[in-house]
Each structure stands twice: as C-alpha cells, then as structure tokens.
Amino acid sequence: MTAITVDRLTKRYGELVAVDDLSFEVRRGAVTGFLGPNGAGKTTTLKMVLGLARPTAGHALVAGRPYAELDEPARTVGAVLEGGLFHPGRSGRAHLRVQAKAAGLPSGRIEEVLALVGLQAAADKRVGGYSMGMRQRLGLATALLGEPEILILDEPANGLDPAGIRWLRTFLRGFADDGGTALVSSHLLAEVAQAVDDVVVIGHGRCLAQGAIGDLVDPDASLEDVYLDLTGTTEVLR
Amino acid sequence: MTRLLSAELAKLTTVRSTWLVLGLVAAFSAATVAGILVLSGTDVSPMSLADPALQTEMLLPSEVALFAMLSGVVIATGDLRHGTIVPTLLAAPSRGALLVAKAGVAAVAAVALVVAAVAANLAVGLPGLALAGEELAVAWGTTAGLAGLATANAMLAGLIGVGVGILLRNQVAAIVAVVVVTFLVSPLLVGLVPEVGWYTPVGLETILLSGSGLLEVSGLEAPFGAVTAGALLAAYAAAATVAGGTLLARRDV
User: Fold this and answer.
1) Same-domain pairing of A211 and A156
2) What pTM does this model have?
C-alpha cells in the first residue's frame, strides 16, 4: 500500500529547475528518509506534496488524493516545514489552540500533544523566546494534533539536543510500528540511518536512488558512503 | 468556514498588539474629544459646543476607518510575514475560505474599533459637556444613523486593507502605502484635483459621513451623495478582496 505518491513532479522558477521530473513512492507503515544536499529540492517537493506550491508539471497524492482534496487533512497528515512556523508573540498553547480551531479538532487534544512532546512547562511562554529545539517540539505537537496516519517532517532533528534526537527516533519507530507512515527529510545521515526503513535520495531535483535501506547500503558500507557516491558532495553533517 | 473564522479570530486575540491598537484608538478618540472640548468657541475652532453638528461630530468615531484598514492589512499580512500561513493552509487548504475568514475577522475588528472609539468619546464627551454647562443637543436618531454609517465605512476599510495586504504581501510596505495614501495622496487630491480626489477612500468617507457636518466644516461641495459614496467604497472593497483572493489562490507559500 502506498501512502504518498510523487509522479513526475517538476517545479521551475524561471530558468531554475528546483525539482526535475521526480517520482517516488512512500509505503504505508514505514519511515522513509528523504535525503539530499542543501538546495536539492527537498522542501520544494514537500511543499508540492502538501499543496503549498503549485507544480509546473506532474502531481502528488497523499492517501490517494491531492492534499487539497482530503476531507480532514489534519486527521490524515501531520506536517512540519522549515522547523515549524509560528507568530513570535503568541504562546505555544495559543498557537495550538489556533491550529485546533482551524482543523476542527477538540481543544482537549492540546494538552495531550504538549505532554507528548514534553512542552507543558513552556506552553504559556511566547514562542519568540523558544529555543530551536523547543520550536521543533512545538512543530511536532502541531503535526500530531489530529492524530494523523501520515507524518511529513522537514529536517525535524535540526536544533534538537542528543536526548531530543533519541526521543524523536524512538517516537518515529513507535509511530511506524503502530501502523503510521512518516516521510522525513534530513541531512543528518547518522540519525536517519538508525530510524528509517526506506530512503529516497535526490540531487539537483532528481531522484538518485530509492528503496529499502538494507537494499541500498551494503553491510560493509554506510549510508553516508552511499549518499556521497550518489550526490557527489561532501556536504554531510553527522 | 466557521472553523477558520474562529481560528482567525483566535489569531487576532492571542497577540498583545491587537489590544494595544484597541487601546490606542480609544486614547486617540478621547484626546480628540478633549481637544474639541477645550478649543471650541476659541479662535482656533469658532464653532460653539452648543452646536448640535459639533456635538455629533464629537461623539462619532474619528479616523477609525484608517485603523480598521491597517488592521485589515495586519490580518492579511501577519500570516505571510511570520510564515504561519503554512500551518494554516495545512489545517484548512481552501485559500478562498481563508480569505473569506480573514475578511470576516477584519470586519469584526472594525466593529470593535468603532465600539472602543465611541465608548471613549462618550466617556470624555458627556462629562465634558456637563462641565462646560452645555446641554446635550444631538438628535440621537441621526447620530445613531451616522454611527452606523461610520461602522459600515470602517468595515469596508478593513476589507480594503485585507485586499491591499495580500496584494502587497510585505506588511511594512502595505502599512506605509495605506498611511501615505490616507494622509498625503487623498487630501492632496481632494484639495487640488477634486474631480479625482472625491473618488479616493478618504474622499468617499467624507461624503458618506457628510451628515455629521464634515463637508460643512471643510467648505467643500461633493459631486455625488452618500449612497453613491457607500456603493463606490463597497465596490473598492470587493475589488481589493477579489484581487487579493485571485493572487492568494495562485501564489506558492
């Protein structure tokens, strides 16, 4: 079963081709790493998948439908882009209240997700005073409000401390083990290797490889070796 | 739609700047009324406090349309400025519905601004008249009608602000544009090229509220009546909202 289908997706900005005839699938019940160097087109692709950017060509389906046509998008997909985007003058709890109202979700869910990401103590502080890690946690709390079956996370490990990264990894594994699907863009390869079942590697907007991590990475090699061979870059952050 | 309206209203009420603007409008209104009370009957302002036209003008909200338009700009551009349009559209992907919700909240904000201004005017004006030994001489029916027109004008200004905000996208640029057009371009056009100036939002507002004596005070003669002025303002608001909506539907966020 496929949770997300990206079919010949292309995005051009004038002469610049950000995403170039990109196709891949994300299977249900798996954590899929979406890898590529900075500027490879990962965020642009995710924005097109989520209906935030209009493709020049091709299309993307989430749970079998274009995102904009989902009946209850927040109950189907939880997504965080660009580390979460918040009004700095609004508290974390107020941000979640706004999002719950927009998605038609019960307000009781707010306390549950705050507890899940460990942000209760800071919930009434304004987001402008949050650290990067706290913003990531609030973004994840936002994505989880609707108890979605699919998560799409853009660089979720950025700004997290080692404990936070371990927590995220454990959370993603548990989410997938319970039948959830996650598509996680990242360039933190060491973390991705431990958390994902499948990988999609892109470079210059094109798909360079996709498949189960065990099929792509030889036992005597690392994901980093494969990534560097595919992308031809040295731009790897551990 | 109800969900988005509720969410947009929550966005507005969960930041401190909203309450600061309401307080600012109330303070500005109170100061304006205090100025009228002090200066009336002097060389600066020869009209007597006993004049019903002056009393009516004193009790009506002043400059609220400007604040309503600026609120509309902030409501429209806040999401674009902080990127919060992304989580909003993820929760509710219909951009048309989002625009309608923002327009609705801009109208609600305009009403709140009018209420704050009128409350301040009454709080300062009524005791001020009593202290000056003047009877309240306004015709309440006329004053209520004019207050209704002022409210409608503020609501339309809020919608224009939403459209302008989405069209210009940049919050600071949109605020500067509204302030420059309101305080510089429109008054200059009304004074120097009236055949054009009357068609600016400020010119139309002056005609719409002409029953308050604004035209009498300014000594100008308008080329059409309040109904036409109201219809033109409504057309501007509709055009700005539709143009903003068209752009929002096509734009990547």
Assistant:
1) yes
2) 0.87
